Amino acid sequence: MTSITTHSRQRAHLRGVHVDFDGRSALGGVDLDVHAGSTTVIAGPNGAGKSTLLEVLAGTRDPTSGTRSVDGAIAFVPQRTAISDRLPVTVRDVVTVGTWGRTGRWHPLGADGRAAVAEAMARLGITALATHPLASLSGGQRQRALLAQGIARGADLLLLDEPTTGLDSDSAERIRSIMRSEAERGVAVVCVSHDPVVIREADHVVRLADGVRIGE
């Protein structure tokens, strides 16, 4: 578990966040603070609002009401099933997308970007897969490629949606290890997860039920 001081930098701040879908409340007045160097897990049953809360943090969904503020660059790592098998891209292509936040989408990849891609692939153990099509990978390999993309972003706030779900034990442990090391490097890590190991090791656990925060 990461040690947090009261002086750690706040990376995300939510107050009274409500999200409604077609008149139905998905989130009802959620408060949340996320600090640098910490790991926060969002837990709860299916339909509790976990992914919606992560989307609000990522800035991909606006609250119906309430306030959201984020300090720093964001990397969002979706579930591997969110990425189409039909994309004609290699593992290196996928990881390189993570550098666009540093260089811009249409700028050539410079030495720093190439180094970031190489380091991210090495940390996730997928260097040997760099030229393989994404569609050819196993579930665990694909999730590692997506996490490598997030690492290559060099973000201050790393958001992950159920990164270990359905993975083999080796892939799941590698991803947990990266989450630990990112927090140790000062990144604020927020993860939706049912993984008991991830939940046990977290600094904070935000528990949701029916879109409402019910405890930690």
Task: Please explain how this structure is put together.
With 216 residues, the protein is α/β, with parallel strands linked by helices. It contains seven helices and nine strands; from the N terminus they run βββαββααααβαβαββ. It has helices spanning 50-58, 91-97, 100-103, 111-123, 139-152, 169-184, 196-201; strands spanning 10-21, 24-35, 39-43, 65-70, 74-77, 157-161, 188-192, 204-209, 212-215. The strands form two sheets. A six-stranded mixed β-sheet has the order 5-6-7-3-8-9, with helices on both faces. Residues 1-7 have low confidence and may be disordered. This is Metal ABC transporter ATP-binding protein. Keywords: ATP-binding, Nucleotide-binding, Transport. One of its GO terms (molecular function) is ATP hydrolysis activity. Residues 12-214 form the ABC transporter domain.
Layout of secondary structure:
Blueprint: E1 10-21, E2 24-35, E3 39-43, H1 50-58, E4 65-70, E5 74-77, H2 91-97, H3 100-103, H4 111-123, H5 139-152, E6 157-161, H6 169-184, E7 188-192, H7 196-201, E8 204-209, E9 212-215
Parallel strand pairs: 3-7, 3-8, 5-6, 6-7
Antiparallel strand pairs: 1-2, 1-4, 8-9
Helix pairs in contact: 2-5, 4-5, 5-6
Offer a concise description of the structure.
The chain has 216 residues and is α/β, with parallel strands linked by helices.
- The appropriate CATH architecture of the largest domain is 3-Layer(aba) Sandwich
Tell me which oligomeric state these chains represent: single chain
Shape: globular
What's the pLDDT, averaged over the residues? 90
Backbone CA Rg: 17 Å
The number of helical runs is 7
**Topology pattern, helix = H, strand = E:** EEEHEEHHHHEHEHEE
CATH topology of the largest domain: Rossmann fold
Helix percentage: 25-40%
Tell me about the biggest sheet? 6 strands, mixed
**Count of domain modules:** 2
Helix and strand composition category? alpha/beta
**What is the tally of beta strands?**
9
* Strand arrangement in the largest pleated sheet: 5-6-7-3-8-9
